[in-house]
Amino acid sequence: MPVNVVYSTQARATGGRDGQSGTLDGAVNVTLAVPKEMGGNGKGVNPEQLFATGYAACFLGAMKFVASQGGPKVPAETTVTSTVGIGPRSEGGFGLEIALEIDLPGVDRAEAQALIEQAHQVCPYSNATRNNIDVKLSLA
Question: pLDDT tens digit string along 12-22?
Answer without folding.
Answer: 999 999 999 99
